[in-house]
Structure formats: structure tokens, C-alpha cells
Amino acid sequence: MTHATRAASCTLVLVALAACGSDGPDIPPAERYANQCVTPRAGIDPQTGKAYLDEAGTLLDEKHWVRSWINDLYLWYREVPDPDIATFDNAVDYFAKLKTSAITASHKPKDRFHFTYDTAYWNSLSASGVEAGYGVQWVLAATTPPRELVVGFVQPGTPAADAGIARGAEVLAIDGVDLVNGSDVDTLNHGLSPPAAGESHSFVIRDGGASETRTVTLVSADISLAPVQRIALPAPDDKVGYLLFTDHIATAEKALVDEVTALQAAGITDLVLDLRYNGGGYLDIAAELAYMIAGPNATAGKVFDREQFNDKSSTINPVTGDVLSPSPFRDETVGLSVAAGHALPHLDLQRVFVLTSAGTCSASEAVMNGLAGVDVEIIQIGETTCGKPYGFYPADNCGTTFFAIQFQGVNAKGFGDYADGFTPGGVFHGCTVGDDFTHPLGDPAEARLAAALAYRGGDTTCATARRAAAADPLAAVLGGIAVKPQWRQNTIVRR
Amino acid sequence: MKRITVALIASAACRTAQGPGEMTAVVVHPTPESRAAIAQAVTRALPTHSPVELDDDALRDTGVIVLERSQRRDPQELVLEGRDPGAPGREERFHLVKVGDACERVHDRTGRHYALIGTTCAPR
Fold first, then answer.
1. What's the pLDDT tens digit per position in A8-20?
2. A51-63 per-position pLDDT tens digit
3. Is the pLDDT confidence value at A4 over 60?
4. Do A222 and B55 touch (CB under 8 A)?
5. CA distance A384 to chain B (A)
6. What three-state secondary structure class fits A420?
7. In this complex, how many residue pairs, one in chain A and one in chain B, have their CB atoms less than 8 Å apart?
8. Which sequence spans correspond to the domains of chain B?
9. Residue A222 belongs to what H/E stretch?
10. N or C: which end of chain B has fewer CB within 10 A?
11. What does the alpha-carbon distance between residue B117 and residue A437 come to, in Å, rounded to a whole number?
């Protein structure tokens, strides 16, 4: 394919870039170097369904593309250093240096989200929510020795449930390797995150409240995880809805519609939204959920989330070429797992209790921020969230997909500065309460839910719930990290 | 509810026209063979014919399969693209229909029908 043909196929991008220009004559737009590869790919690009656009190029072309792409689209492109391009052996290493080194008020790196992936790997598909595993949400309370791995929850009907494993069980060894202090992390990770269904692994566990250990053998299966669970609370809290929402994946659209419809029918007057293990996903689902909580009166004509790109792109989305327009609260399904255009149920609540952890991230934080933008009161119980008001349009070049922060989301009030996360009692009322592994999720005695229920009754300090949890370290875990099997590329347990 | 068992030659069937008597359906009594047939048909429908992971209940509960990019996580165990603006056509949806005595999987985006081998389905 000639440059002219390729350019014609990318008209939208060119229009956008031409409108924005680039930062000085030394750095041309990324299109100048796009798809010029040391090793051009052949065949069909799954993203487009058409032949790859790759042509023979040089390593310098690939590195120039990275530099230009960052200059075009990176949110903080003015803060990017300019290391000597000739000193890098590959585009990925060069890319890693092209980010801001600024830090936040809490001394974290301002940019913690600068990544690359092999494109073929990144693009692989699976049925929504399906992964090889046992049906367990693991939570790492300590990632390095002495490690602590606890079961966050177990999905009914899965191998873990069949083995009698429940929330609060501690894993002490896998396939004969000491999980707490062992050095064979490959064996540990393999057992925790099996690459395929049908693998058999041995686990030494201590069930919650037990003093003895037991050994169970789990056989991995391809499991379709349920992203939403509604648990009915007993009286006197039977008018409080409780939703455990764990993933903004495509199937969550239907699940949320079903469960919010049930909550609506039950006539709930308050909602506890448990996002402690929800790391985000589709922003459209966040916009639907926020609408279902707040309802039409509060959200009509209001912005759920507005994307702000760098100062080269104030009116045009520089990636899609579309005119920048705010994302509304979605009052109809967008068609992820329910046909598009169905009216959504709504609860019309003026406040919502949100249970959070450090893993509450991205689209989950957008739910909180979007609701706050239309004056729905957020009562936050748990821990500081991850702090990711940013997004990206990943871009493939020559077989590598690059992720660099390109936009920041702000709510209807223009607020989006939460790079250090939402802390209970900070932006939102609420209080810090640890993760209570001594009770099931949805149990009114579970510390975070108990704190939310007590808050409704006037205990705005959460003191009662914290006191109750203080007796057992497993009832007040702070800093836990929710981990999930995911095609084994991640390292769950670290040395 | 009438149940039917289908044993068709998958490679022979691929059509886009909507036939008479076509009813949305769900899989009943899924077996390793039917699951493999569904996975094979889904793979054939994708532009790159990439293999996909399906669970054992594929098409059983709702008759619908939604494919999306497998979730990836960063070194902090956070969802990599946790604030995903999405894009038209990124997701691939399939639904199941009963056509006469056959079970067919329909690719929503293209409307193409793919017959399934060894799959038992019933109208939903």
C-alpha cells in the first residue's frame, strides 16, 4: 500500500491533526511515521477487518512514531522529556521514557498509567466475563513475604464453591509451595491463575474462623463471572438495597438492568453500592448505572462525564475526529448486552452509600464523580480509591499497542482532580473502614456494610462498626488488592 | 417444550437471509461437543478467525453471546483500560435461533447464520 492510499484511509485522523497542528516544526504528526515497521505484519487486522497497513520501515521510523504520537495526544505532552532517540534499542523502551515525571500532592507519580502490550494479545477476545479459574475473587492483603492471600468472594456453582471455600479463607500453600514465604512464585502464580480449564491444583487453606488447615484440590474451568449480585437485607434494613458490582463488562448492562428493576419493585429507599472490587471498564455502563441511581429529574440535560484532552484539542476529539461533546447520563441501554434503546429503570435516590477500596478505580470512580456532579450525595465507606480520572485510546503501531494518558474526565461541575483517589471524609462524607473478611459480602454485620447501615442511623463516625471489627485482624484489612486470573500475563504473587 | 438435536455439517451452512419460522432459542443440555461447535462457529465469524473462550453455559441462559476484549491488568492489578469509552463494533454479539430442525448461531453485526453440530436447542 502506498503512503497516499494509507493517508486516504485515515482521513479522520488527518483532519483532526491538521486542525490541531503539532508542537513545533521538529515533531511532525504521528501519521507521518505510522505503520512503517521493521517487521511489517501481513493478513487481516482484527480491529478493522481489513489488511494490515504495515509497510517496510526502520527502527527509527517506529521510534519517531512514538515521539510524534505522544506529542500529538499525551495529556501532559509539554512535560515530556526529550532523551536522545538514537540511544534506544526499541520503540517500547523509548516510549517508557516519554511521560511526565511530576508527582501528585500525595507524592505519587502523576502518571501511573503508561503501558504497552503486544497487539495480538491485547486484541484477543473472550466471551464477556469468561476466564479460566475457580470462581474465586482473590484479595492480596500483602504481596511480598510474609504474603497474605484471602478469598474475597466465591461465585456459587463454581469449583471453589463446590469445594466449600468461602470469603475469608486464607491460602497458605499451592501445589506444595509455601505461599506466605516461599520463593517459587511461578508455581504460586500458575496455581492461582491457571492458563486454561482442566488444570488441577492443590491448595492448603485455613477457612475463616478455623484453627486447622485443610487441603483441597481445585480443577480450573472456564467460568462466566457474574458482575452484579443483589443481596436482600433483612429487617430492619429491608428497604436498603445492596448491590455488589464487580466489573463494568458488557454483560453488566443486562445484570444491572435486571437488578435495579428488582430494587425498584422492592421500593428501596437507600442503596449501598459495593464497588470495593470494581476496577472499572466501560464508561457507558457507568453512565447507565448513575442514571439508574439518580433518575431522570436529577440528570435531565446534565453531563455525566466530559473528556478534556490536551490544549491542542479543545473542540475536536483528536482520535475519533468527532466534535467533542460531553457524555450524558444514559437513560437507555447502549446495546452491550441488552438491545440498544431500552429505557432504563431508575431509583431516583438523592444519596447513595458507596463501599470502596484501593481497587475501586476508573469507571467506578466516574460513577461517584458523575453522581456528585448532579448533587447526589455520596457517602463513602471503606478506603481511598485508586485515583484514575484519566483515559486513553490505545493505539497500535507495528504490532505494539501503546497506552498513554490522553484525556481527563470531569463531571457536570467541572471537577475531575482526583488523581490521589477519593478518600472517605474528603471530597465525600464517610469514613475509613477495613475490609471485613470474617463476614460474607452482603451480611449486615460485615464491617463496611455495617458502617453504612449505622451511618443511616446516625453514627457518622463509623465507630461502632470499627469497634466490632477491631478484635480480629481479618475483619479490618486495609490495602488489600483484588486480583483476578487473566490469561496469566500478570504476576499475582511477588518475590 | 420441544427439544431438537442438530447434527449438521457446519462448514456447509453460512447464510445471511432470514428464513421463515426462525425463532430465538437457547441451548439445552450443553455438551463438550456442542460447546466446541459454538466456539468453532464463533471463531469462523470473526475477521481473523481467532479462537475465543466461552464458558460452559454459552448460549444456554439467554441465547446470546457477547464477546469483548479480554480484560488486562497493570502491575498494580488495576484494569488496564478502566475508563473505556468504547467504540462501535468493538463488541461482537451472537444469538441463537432455531430454524426448522436446525440450531443456528447468528452473528448480529453481519446477520450471517452458522449451523451448529451436535447442539440441542429449544425456542426461548
1. 333 333 333 333 3
2. 999 999 999 999 9
3. no
4. yes
5. 14
6. coil
7. 154
8. 4-12+20-123
9. strand A221-224
10. N
11. 46
